[in-house]
């Protein structure tokens, strides 16, 4: 990256990998600025690299530039923040290439220094010169951004250009591009979000042709704060690395490091997310823990003892229960099940009171809480005591493990510890170190083939000690200068310091593209096949064509989308942390894909697969339609044993087909004839906790298809049910179907649709036969396996079961759907946008900066349609300056900007406006403007 400056008009230009951004203070009037929200505005445009010298730009060569931090307004001055010194400190993921060398896939850089350059004044250009000529004291005292420079240069800020550093490895996935990273970022961990957000929006406005160049530059730098480090094991034959990433949350803004409780939005101070990542050639492992202030309403007062602090509740727990619930709802939506470990100082009466209130709120929220009064010595020397208390959580939550050699997900982490402590970074870090060590040892022992050496464990402990040291120093530095740092954080996060970027050229192109939307947008119908099957822990080697290709499916034109849900793909063994057998998922993926591609003229690819315990969801899309699918992401939710076990639960996938949002789910709900309420509770739990990026819920999608083993039964005697099944009297049975009754009552699955059932109950059979259950339990036949849909854009076409696939105690169920989707022809859209861009830039190229600015801000720049219906730019006459738009006070047709006055010689007591005239006053009409009032 290179920086260029122009004295008149004052402008800064950034050149990176051949792409140039030119920024200058906006020339719009104060009244126009207020109409745009009152934020200071900078004008941005692109320019060819060779044109910089022609426009009077001179390169700044006093620093090396590594990236753009963003823009900020301080004391009415606009500044451009640039990263000027970095070092590589971590590489969580890597691969081995030819020759046995390691090639890093993901790199993390630590920011060592930043500089701020003024956009609208040369008062601070001393920063452009060699500091030896001026002295650092002068720069520090005179520059408005000196405190921000010191903040971002303290060594606690990090960034990566290879992946989304704001999210955990499990959340961000293994292979996602910049678009996905931008859409899925966790904004509370992005410290320069206020500075860089306008640059991100600029990327969304530019044409597709420019975007590839923009992405290749260094204009988007998303910065997190905390600690990052990777250690490469030196004493092992094959490469092995251990990484820690700790992210400090900005959710409490200016009170980030304060000693205070929860706010009304459920935010707390000192919230840190810590992730340990272990990688070798075969596996990559990740585990996440969180810590933060106790989420209650409390305050601190000085104690009688010197430097002592006393903590006390501000109000009754009932008063802040809502905020408490918000806090844990947010945690659950990201991490799954949350379990609290509250560290209480021994013999502290005030903390004991706080702990009791904490437990009361946790019980009301149904959150597991463990109070621990261990000091640091016990946590260090007798960590087994702590592990014993947390053993249930460790096994239930699992860990993220990916088998690199086989390309499969071995396990995912479905819950998280939330550690709370008062006035301490040390003790939460000690807990995290103990838990991390235990999880790695348990996981590697279950994987097999991995040996944890004493050197590995000592390296692991050293890495956590480094994490404690740097976070502790940061915490204490901030706490000692709390008021000073609050002012800095206010400056960094305040909306009044945010700079708007006005891009007149692309703003006009966007307006034109909205007007031309019909030219590249159309509707089409796609077909969807949905299937659910409880396979009873079996991997069936024979043909499953009768399920995937029922008579309702045209073999010459297979559906565009296949989504298949499985239940009980594995038998879950208690006491094992990795409760997912990866081979079952691999087996069904291969079998389904092979079956789909063995018939018809369509070729399918698997685009997503997710597993939670025994619940598996697979998504296949035809190659011709895959290009229209984007924003693909998944989520899971346990519901077994009160949300602690993965023997029951749901797996969901969300994606956008062009512009239509789809959500597809499979779930396995509570079993048992009498467990209707528990199934309803499972449904509500899934609806509440399944979340996607930007907090998208299930109901926020245009089309929802929900399938699975819902386990709803028929509330009739066994003999009567079997007799009516023999007589094909399904209508009478359906009237007593528990799910049907729940839906009619508006309880479970409100607003969902289900086609009439005309097939026999799908459960329970003697495996390998067509005979309903003859075991001792003699279960009543029932339609446990169902497929429901929701949305105006989807219509169910068929519903049935594959009665001849008999290896399981269930029968596979299928449904086909037709969905009307809005499709954007991306190629045509890009072509039209590029044509407009090229024509406008060509005609603007001969104008001066002043003329170009005036023309682009005229508001009249709209291309006409030629005879060939191709968009063309309007004719721009050089030197012509269009007047500003009209306002309530000034009309462009009134000379010298005088205020307009109109006098009508009409007596309002005798006449009124004619109500018979058209609303539009410019329409010619024979009716008079005024008519006489009727006498009263």
From TrEMBL:
Residue intervals of the SAC domain: 148-477
- PROSITE patterns the record matches: SAC (PS50275)
Q: What is its EC number?
A: 3.1.3.36
Please list where the region (Disordered) is annotated: 863-889
**GO CC annotation:** cytoplasm; membrane
Q: Some GO term, biological process aspect, for this entry: which one? A: protein transport
**This protein's UniProt keywords:** Cytoplasm, Endocytosis, Hydrolase, Protein transport, Transport
SMART domains of this UniProt entry? IPPc
Name this protein carries in UniProt: phosphoinositide 5-phosphatase
User: Which species expresses this protein natively?
Assistant: Lachancea thermotolerans (strain ATCC 56472 / CBS 6340 / NRRL Y-8284) (Yeast)
């Amino acid at each position: 990256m290179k920086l260029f400056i122009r004295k008149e008009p004052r402008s800064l230009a950034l050149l990176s990998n051949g792409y140039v951004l030119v920024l200058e203070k906006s020339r719009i009037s104060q009244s126009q600025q207020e109409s745009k929200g009152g934020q200071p505005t900078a004008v941005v445009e692109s320019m060819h690299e060779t044109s910089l010298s022609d426009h009077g730009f001179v390169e700044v060569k006093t620093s090396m530039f590594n990236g753009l931090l963003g823009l900020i307004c301080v004391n009415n001055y606009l500044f451009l923040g640039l990263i000027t010194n970095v070092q590589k400190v971590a590489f969580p993921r890597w691969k081995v290439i030819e020759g046995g060398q390691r090639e890093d896939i993901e790199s993390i850089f630590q920011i060592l220094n930043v500089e701020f350059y003024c956009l609208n004044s040369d008062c601070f250009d001393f920063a452009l010169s060699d500091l030896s000529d001026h002295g650092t004291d002068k720069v520090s005292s005179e520059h408005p951004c000196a405190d921000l420079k010191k903040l971002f240069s303290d060594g606690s800020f990090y960034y990566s250009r290879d992946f989304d550093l704001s999210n955990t490895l499990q959340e961000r996935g293994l292979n996602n591009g910049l678009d996905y990273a931008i859409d899925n970022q966790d904004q509370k961990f992005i410290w320069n979000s206020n500075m860089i957000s306008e640059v991100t929006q600029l990327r969304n406005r530019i044409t597709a042709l420019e975007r590839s160049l923009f992405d290749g530059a260094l204009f988007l730098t998303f910065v997190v704060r905390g600690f990052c480090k990777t250690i490469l094991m030196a004493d092992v034959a094959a490469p092995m690395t251990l990484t820690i990433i700790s992210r400090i949350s900005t959710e409490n803004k200016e009170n980030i490091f304060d000693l205070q409780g929860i706010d009304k939005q459920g935010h707390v101070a000192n919230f840190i997310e810590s992730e340990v990542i272990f990688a070798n050639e075969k596996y990559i492992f990740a585990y996440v823990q969180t810590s933060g202030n106790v989420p209650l309403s409390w305050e601190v007062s000085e104690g009688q003892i010197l430097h002592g602090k006393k903590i006390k509740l501000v109000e009754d727990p009932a008063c802040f229960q809502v905020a408490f619930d918000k806090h844990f709802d947010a945690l659950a939506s990201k991490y799954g099940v949350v379990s609290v470990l509250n560290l209480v100082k021994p013999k502290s009466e005030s903390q004991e009171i706080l702990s009791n209130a904490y437990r009361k709120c946790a019980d009301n929220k149904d959150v597991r809480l463990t109070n621990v009064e261990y000091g640091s010595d016990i946590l260090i020397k007798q960590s087994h005591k702590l592990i014993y208390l947390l053993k249930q959580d460790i096994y239930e939550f699992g860990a993220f493990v990916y088998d690199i050699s086989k390309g499969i997900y071995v396990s995912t982490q479905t819950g998280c510890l939330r550690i709370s402590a008062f006035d301490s970074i040390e003790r939460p870090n000690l807990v995290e170190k103990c838990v991390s060590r235990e999880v790695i040892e348990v996981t590697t022992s279950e994987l097999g083939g991995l040996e944890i050496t004493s050197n590995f464990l000592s390296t692991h402990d050293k890495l956590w000690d480094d994490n404690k040291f740097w976070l502790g120093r940061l915490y204490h530095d901030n706490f000692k200068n709390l008021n000073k740092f609050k002012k800095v954080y206010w400056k960094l996060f305040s909306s009044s310091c945010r700079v708007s970027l006005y891009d007149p050229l692309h703003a006009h192109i966007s307006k034109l593209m909205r007007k031309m939307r019909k030219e590249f947008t159309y509707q089409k119908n796609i077909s969807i096949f949905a299937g659910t099957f409880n396979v009873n822990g079996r991997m069936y080697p024979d043909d499953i064509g009768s399920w995937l290709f029922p008579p309702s499916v045209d073999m010459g034109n297979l559906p565009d989308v296949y989504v298949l849900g499985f239940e009980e793909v594995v038998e879950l063994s208690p006491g094992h942390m990795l409760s997912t057998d990866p081979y079952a998922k691999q087996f069904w993926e291969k079998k389904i894909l092979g079956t789909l591609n063995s018939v018809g003229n369509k070729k399918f690819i698997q685009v997503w697969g997710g597993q939670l315990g025994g619940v598996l969801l697979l998504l296949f899309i035809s190659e011709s339609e895959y290009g229209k699918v984007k924003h693909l992401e998944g989520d899971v939710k346990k519901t077994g044993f009160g949300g602690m076990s993965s023997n029951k639960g749901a797996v969901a996938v969300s994606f956008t087909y062009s512009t239509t949002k789809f959500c597809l789910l499979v779930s396995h709900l509570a079993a048992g004839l009498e467990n209707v309420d528990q199934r309803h509770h499972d449904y509500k739990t899934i609806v509440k906790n399944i979340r996607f990026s930007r907090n998208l819920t299930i109901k926020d999608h245009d089309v929802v298809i929900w399938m699975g083993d819902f386990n709803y039964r028929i509330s009739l005697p066994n003999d009567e049910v079997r007799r009516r099944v023999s007589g094909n009297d399904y209508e009478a049975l359906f009237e007593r179907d528990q799910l049907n009754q729940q839906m009619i009552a508006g309880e479970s699955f409100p607003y969902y649709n289900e086609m009439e059932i005309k097939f026999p109950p799908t459960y329970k059979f003697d495996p390998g036969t067509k005979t309903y259950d003859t075991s001792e339990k003699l279960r009543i036949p029932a339609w446990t396996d169902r497929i429901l849909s929701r949305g105006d854009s989807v219509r169910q076409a068929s519903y049935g079961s594959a009665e001849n696939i008999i290896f399981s105690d269930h029968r596979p169920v299928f449904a086909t759907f037709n969905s009307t989707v809005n499709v954007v022809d991306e190629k045509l859209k890009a072509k039209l946008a590029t044509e407009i861009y090229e024509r406008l830039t060509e005609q603007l190229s001969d104008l001066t900066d002043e003329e170009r600015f005036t023309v682009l801000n005229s508001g009249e720049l709209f291309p006409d349609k030629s005879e060939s219906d191709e968009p063309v730019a309007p004719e721009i006459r050089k030197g012509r300056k269009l007047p500003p738009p009209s306002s309530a006070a000034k009309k462009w047709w009134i000379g010298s900007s005088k205020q307009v006055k109109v006098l009508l010689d009409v007596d309002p007591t005798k006449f009124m406006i004619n109500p018979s005239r058209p609303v539009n006053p410019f329409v010619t009409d024979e009716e008079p403007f005024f008519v006489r009032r009727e006498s009263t």
